[in-house]
Amino acid sequence: MSTLRHHPDAPKRLIAHDVASRHGVIDEALVLSRAECEDIVQRALTLSKADACRINIGASYQTNLRFADNQMSTSGISDDASITISSVFGKKRASVTTNDTSPDGLARAVAQSEALAKLSPDDPELMPELGAQTYASIPAWFDSTANLSAEDRAKAALTALEPARKAKDLTVAGFIDCSANATAIGTSAGLFAYHRSTGANYTLTVRTNDGTGSGWVGGDENDFSRIDFAGIATRAIDKARASRNPQAIEPGRYTVIFEPQAVSDLIGSVRGAMNARSAEEGRSPFSVRGPNGNGTKLGERIMDTRVTLVTDPADPQILGSPFDGEGMPTGRQVWVENGVLKQLAYSRFWAARKGVQPNSGGGGGFGGGGGGGLKMLGGDSTFDAMIKGTERAVLVTRLWYLRVVDGRTLVYTGLTRDGTFLVENGKVARSIKNFRFNDSPLFLLNNLEAVGPSVRVAEGGSVVPALKARDFSFTSLSDAV
Amino acid sequence: MTTRRDFLATTGLAASALTLAARRADAAGTRSPILTANTEPDPQVKVLLLEALTAAKLAGASWADARIQRQRRQNIGTREQQVTNVSDTDTIGCGVRVIVDGTWGFSATRSLTKEGVARAAQRAVSLAKANRVARERLVRLAPTEVHPNATWKSGYTIDPWSVPVEEKVALLFAANAEAMKVKNIRFVNSNLSFVKEERSYANSEGSMISQDVVRSWVTMSCTAVSDDRTETATRGPEVVQPMGRGWEYVLENDIVKNATVWAEQAREKLTARPVDVGRWDLILHPSQLFLTIHESIAHPTELDRAMGYEANYAGTSFIAPPDNVLGKLRLGPDMLTIRGNRSEKDGLATIGYDDDGVRPDEFDIIRNGIFWDYQTTREQAEWLRPWYEKNGMPVRSHGCAYAQSWSDVAFQRMPNVSIVPDQQVDRSLDDMVAATDKGIVMIGRSSYSIDQQRYNAQFGAQVCYEVKGGKIVGQLRDVAYVMRTPDFWNSVDLLGGKSSYELGGTFNDGKGQPGQSNAVSHGCPPVRFKNINVINTGRQL
After folding, report:
1. Do B348 and B342 meet the contact criterion of CB atoms below 8 Å apart?
2. A452 in a domain, yes or no?
3. pTM: predicted TM-score of the whole model, two decimal places
4. In chain A, which among 166-195 make CB contacts under 8 A with chain B?
5. 8-state DSSP, A157
6. Are B145 and B359 in contact (CB under 8 A)?
7. Cα(A363)–Cα(B84) distance, rounded to whole angstroms?
8. A408, B232: Cβ pair inside 8 Å?
9. The domain that contains A76 carries what CATH number?
């Protein structure tokens, strides 16, 4: 997608500076500008009669295209903006969200949040609003994504539709999803934060018309022009054909080679489990159990020494938000370093009570409300080397329908999907039927054999490597293709 | 005590905040659309809907529809005797869908002015035009009646927004306090969620429909910790089923009284016997079975899935291709009939008119054990024309088009999909236990997972009771059943009767790209399944 035109779809200007003239007219700008957000915050703070007030603003311009059964299906454009007013009286707090950014709408939201807050009981865990903060500037906005036209997206879809129609043995389904986003936060204590970003996501499933093969490949970038549409189509077609006529092998414990998407699907769940409070309350996999334990596994080696997990919005592979939902700077956080649990996620309240630095924002778990995705640092192997060096293993493209089975051990169940193969004697030997697994990311990250380079995956927003690990527990077969 | 109602009344906000008058002023400062609390289509909404349709037609659409929808959500969360969240969300806008040369286009805007909705219509048309290059097969809509002045209201009597927040919090606190009185209970979370939608719809065939929908859900989880801190066990959070009703439904469920029961169940689970792996007869309570119906019967009978339209996300279906399975595939014994409907009392998918402007009908999905029909929209009903004509059935949509909000395009979503109870014997759950020698009664949804074609599934439950010699002998833990869908449903050997029929449901059924949530209910009696594979999910770190 080298040529990007300015289509009538696209707004005439990307950033609106003329705030006074545009209240109530939103289509002119793609998303709210810094100046507009500052104006909204100021107006809300002027209206506010509360002891403290926070204004969270989110605006988006989303465009998408969907195809299936070798046809274009639905496509859409939508614009929206929402303002959340959180009002505090003493220890009472409530929030009201509206997508009416007009002066009347804002006044109503402020009044309603104050009314709700006054009626709410005291929240003993309420923390004061943050004052002014310093944030990193993260270059997450790309005009190549923001200015995309409907024709550009249709042309991108044709990179998969045309070869599939020509081939006669293939049916494709895919989704191109692009967005331009702005977020802003202001508080009565003097904080103001603004960030804007673009996102471009493409996923493609190729199925063989005999109903026995399916291959999935995806890409996710802030910059649309970095997505290799033709390359994704080629890889997905190859995978679909290679996965035809899968054979059943016995469920059981296998060495596995997980492609990065499969790794992300499973270890993404570690994020929510990192809450410090749950661990200290004794109901987390990171709690020390039993009559003598009242603490956590902080400082203990809980994974293979090759595992380092970080969140870092400024990382070029992540390009996340420099602040969380409370306006706290996110920055680089190291959660697991060389297998040792270095941090748990502390909300501001829990951190204050425990006398540590808060690192999660809003109590919302690992990485907080901002900070972008989880990154597992890469290792010294490569995907090809993993295959070559393997006598027998199950190669997994991605996982599906993961649900926690036991929160105490973080055991999840789910299934393999869209390309599952048996590796034998250094080669991808044959396609095998999909499996259901019951296993924990904590076990997987303890049983490592090899770690590849980290890449950003299409689903889940993580940056993770391909992994080879032993003793992964597949518990039943699935007939699904 | 100052209630929210009082406050709004005394500050003069009542008219605007509670009846929604003047939700938005347009750029010129004149009053723009008003959605009133009753279901009559508002004149100004009508004007905007017609403006959008006219703009679409002028831009080249052969067919168009427009939806102006306001959605309010309220969430109130507590833990023990603390509030964790009080939030109110309100969003309104207009979505316009068009067909140009047999190709779809959709655009949505929050700008509720004549210019704003016309611009959305024009954008939708330009999208459809751009996409024609990639469309070979043309969209055709099955015929439907025109509803020029239709209204509908869901079955609620007390609007949740008319109840003050402190009354809601007081109820949750009282329930939490009761639960905390039970020995070993250390943590309690409870939550109230309410949704109110005012949906106004018009299409270029002349329909003009206004609907008022309320949904309510109260959840609670009770966590017990053993004296030696080695074990934890939780009952909940889905202890009360969500319904298409209002505050009166929350009160009827008496969570303060029931909190003790749920807390005792969590405590008892601490010392429950780990299940023996192997084959068991399962008696699935409606609070557990509804989700299995949802995942293994309702999803694979969505026609878009069967045709590959969800292949890149939610998946396809083992009940496909249609020609090979309609009227042929056996999915249960003769006693098993499963119906789709959007009319079931209090159902979450219950509605007067769908987002194609169709009045939904009730239809058999599985008739006497045989697969009989798919869930459809107007576009999809045409795909089944040969099957319908062969069987003397009308070629019509079952009314399954739905969009989660104004900003999302309508597509095929699940109606209520429910099992018809035994019509001859009014059998109770107790009767079924008494008739079972070695089994497990499973209550409440827990961990659930199913593959993308809906063959292999694994389901847990919140509470599992062992049945021995026709009697419940105690709780089991770490129970999950693993199944292959056609085998599982063919193992049904006993249905509960009419009196044992209950609705279960969820607010959050995900499908589509971009993802959309659908609220849906499934009704069923308790059902017994013979000789099912049960695994033990317990592990040690």
Report:
1. no
2. yes
3. 0.91
4. 171, 173-175, 177
5. H
6. yes
7. 10
8. yes
9. 3.30.2290.10
B130 and A149 in contact by Cβ < 8 A? yes
- Closest-CA residue of chain A to B173: A121
A225 and A253 assigned to the same domain: no
What is the end-to-end Cα distance of chain B in Å, rounded? 52
A252 in the same domain as A150:
no
Give dist(CA A323, CA A137) in Å, integer.
10
Note the helical H segments in A85-138: 103-119
Q: Which range marks the domain in which residue A78 is found?
A: 19-231
Query: What is the rounded CA–CA span in Å between residue B13 and residue B284?
Result: 49
Q: Note the CATH number of domain B4-270.
A: 3.30.2290.10
Render each residue's pLDDT in chain A as its tens digit; 481 residues.
333 233 333 333 322 322 223 333 333 468 999 999 999 999 999 999 999 999 999 999 999 999 999 999 989 999 999 999 999 999 999 999 999 989 999 999 999 999 999 988 899 999 999 999 999 999 999 999 999 999 999 999 999 999 999 999 999 999 999 999 999 999 999 999 999 999 999 999 999 999 999 999 999 999 999 999 999 999 999 999 999 999 999 999 999 999 999 999 999 878 778 889 889 888 889 998 776 656 899 999 999 999 999 989 999 999 999 998 999 998 898 999 999 999 999 989 999 999 999 886 543 333 333 445 889 999 999 999 999 999 999 999 999 999 999 888 999 999 999 999 999 999 999 999 999 999 999 999 999 999 999 999 999 889 999 999 999 999 999 999 9
- Whether residues A106 and A160 share a domain: the answer is yes
Collapsing DSSP to helix, strand or coil, A444 comes out as helix
The answer to whether B406 touches B68, Cβ cutoff 8 Å, is yes
Total count of domains within chain A:
2
Shortest CA distance to A136 belongs to which of A358, A372, A377? Answer: A372
Partner-chain contact A68 B11, CB within 8 Å: no
Q: Within this chain, do residues A249 and A226 fall inside the same structural domain, yes or no?
A: no
Q: Where, residue-wise, is CATH 3.30.2290.10 in chain B?
A: 4-270
